[in-house]
Design goal:
This protein is about 65% helix and about 10% strand. The strands form 2 sheets. A 4-stranded antiparallel sheet has the order 2-3-5-6, with no helix packed on it. It has a two-stranded parallel sheet with strand order 1-4. It has 12 helices and 6 strands. It is elongated. The longest helix is centred in the first third of the chain and has 67 residues.
């Protein structure tokens, strides 16, 4: 009996082991690795320009303006209408035509109406719609520039968070080495237990700071991935580092360039022109309207119609009307359009004032960060020397543990200040590019010049294109499905939401 029990136990163990193995195999096949990608700044910007939803919304708005212009151009084309009727009629029967008192009647008509724009209403509608399309083109360019700026800032934020992780890693290693030194001196009886406790507390705080820095990095990566339409669990490996490249332009040059090249300023000007056209269109209400009309009709008591139908008619002529009194409707429309013009003019002026402020703010931030870069570089060297002196003094018994930890804090802060200044300089440069209107797809001045020559919006785009694709007519696409996180992804769960570096930084937390 014992033998059979042993055999059964072995069989059960084998079955359990096989089930566990099969389970592990099925899990390994079902779990997919988190996507990884190497990104530099240029590729980040290109992905943002190709995938960002704000750009697609702006393209759809531009296409709406395009069809609005097409609609305005069709307002003076002939309109052909076909109509028909069928019914019964009562009364005495006509022996030559009907056989009973219920008379069937069929009829068909065809008419052509041609509006004659003597008041100029349709002309102003076309002008206003054309300015609307011009403004939409420039708003699209403004959106492209804004997306480039934001993608750049998000990418630099990832680099900054990576730099701050390195600062905290260095601080943790420094405090770990110091704690080892304190423990050695405590065993030798040269320092008090309080030195160990305070060093352990300072190390624990540094470890917590490192965890928070890693979390900030993960959030920065997820934010960048979301902006360029990658899955939020994508592991991004940035290929660049924050550097300092001197910017030599002065504030006056930057401001003058911005006022001439910012697409939102030119779009605001087109809004003013459109409002002026709306006033002229409203004033057309005081003028008569005229339409050329022609029609052909045929009626019969039989269907389908026979050649000898009992009724045929045709007409051609002009229909004219003139509202000599409309109860003040035209006057109200004119006043409304004039108020809209004042609003557009104020918006254009406010836009230019905002442009000057944008340039000045970015320029001053840039130069303040530039000064801080050189200052913090000197501060790092001084802090490193101060920390070395504090360590030597503590080892010799003439310095305190507090001196060493304070020197460590100052060194960490100096490094943080340096990387922050470097980050501020690079982001301010990206903001200054946006404030100046550095083009992405089209050159604004060339576009405006082409439009003033009477060229169509598409021809103006071709003249102003600075990259080949910008000369093409922007087209809307089907809405891409939302990008979601695969919560069953084990790599995602192991790389995010933990206190380890997703880039395998190799930080060791002291026990």
């Amino acid at each position: 009996m014992n033998l059979f029990n042993k055999i059964g136990k072995k069989l059960r163990l084998k079955k359990m082991a096989m089930a566990v193995a099969l389970g592990l195999m099925s899990f390994s096949f079902s779990a997919e690795a988190a996507p990884e990608i190497n990104l530099d700044l240029d590729e980040t910007i290109q992905r943002a320009l190709a995938n960002n939803r704000v750009i697609k919304q702006s393209i759809a708005s531009r296409e709406s303006a395009y069809w609005s212009l097409r609609n305005a151009r069709r307002q003076t084309t002939p309109i052909v209408s076909l109509g028909g009727n069928w019914g019964f009629g009562g009364g005495p029967a006509n022996a030559s035509t009907y056989s009973d008192d219920k008379h069937r009647r069929f009829g068909e008509t065809a008419s052509v109406t041609l509006p004659i724009d003597i008041a100029g209403t349709y002309k102003e509608g076309r002008i206003a719609a054309r300015y609307g399309l011009n403004a939409a083109d420039l708003n699209l360019e403004n959106t492209l520039q804004a997306v480039r700026q934001q993608a750049t800032i998000y990418y630099f934020n990832v680099l900054q968070c990576r730099n701050l992780i390195k600062v905290d890693e260095d601080n943790v290693r420094t405090l770990q080495e110091h704690l080892k030194n304190v423990n050695a001196q405590f065993r030798a009886g040269t320092v008090a237990k309080a030195d160990i406790l305070s060093s352990e507390v300072r190390l624990a705080n540094a470890q917590q700071s490192l965890v928070n820095a890693q979390n900030d990095y993960d959030i920065a990566v997820a934010t960048l991935a979301n902006y360029i339409l990658l899955s939020a669990d994508t592991i991004i490996h940035p290929q660049d580092t924050l550097t300092y490249n001197k910017y030599n332009l002065d504030l006056q040059t930057c401001t003058a360039y911005a006022l001439e090249n910012r697409p939102d300023a030119a779009a605001a000007d087109y809004a003013v022109k459109r409002a002026e056209s709306d006033i002229r269109s409203a004033k057309a209400g005081y003028k008569p309207s005229l339409n050329a009309v022609g029609s052909v009709g045929i009626s019969s008591n039989e269907f389908p119609f026979k050649p000898n139908s009992d009724g045929e008619s045709w007409s051609i002529g002009l229909n004219a009307s003139w509202n000599v009194f409309d109860g003040g409707i035209t006057e109200a429309r004119i006043r409304q359009a004039e108020a809209a013009l004042i609003s557009a003019q104020e918006d254009a002026a406010a836009t230019r004032e905002s442009i000057q402020l944008d340039v000045q703010s970015a320029f001053l931030t840039l130069h303040a960060a530039e000064k801080n870069i050189s200052t913090t570089q000197v501060a790092i060297k001084s802090a490193e020397e101060d920390y070395h002196i504090a360590q030597v003094r503590y080892a010799a018994g003439v310095g305190t543990n507090l001196d060493v930890m304070d020197a460590s804090d100052k060194l960490t802060q100096a490094k943080t200040n340096y990387y922050t200044a470097l980050y501020n300089y690079n982001t301010a440069k990206a903001s200054l590019d946006k404030a100046m209107g550095i083009p992405v797809g089209i050159d604004v001045t060339r576009y405006v010049a082409a439009e003033e020559e009477g060229k169509t919006a598409q021809e103006a785009r071709e003249d102003a294109a600075i990259v080949p694709d910008a000369s093409n007519e922007p087209q809307t696409e089907e809405v891409a499905p939302p990008v979601t996180i695969d919560l069953s992804n084990t790599d995602y769960n192991s790389n995010y939401g933990t206190n380890t570096d997703s880039n395998n930084s190799g930080v060791v937390i002291a026990e």
